[in-house]
Design a protein that fits this description.
Length: 49
């Protein structure tokens, strides 16, 4: 189940996210952030081993 959350990010990062959306790789901001978080968590798990 997905839950709605609120975040605050730097304007520069938001500009990059919006550019990714314009390029069509992601559906929406949530998709960008969920994809990024998943990659981050996988990397963290590798580092913990």
């Amino acid at each position: 189940m997905k839950q709605k959350i609120s975040i605050t990010i730097d304007e520069e990062k938001l500009i990059v996210v919006e550019q990714l959306l314009k390029n069509g790789r992601f559906r929406n901001k949530s998709h960008v952030l969920e994809y990024s978080l998943e990659k981050f968590l996988k990397e963290e798990q590798k580092n913990d081993l």
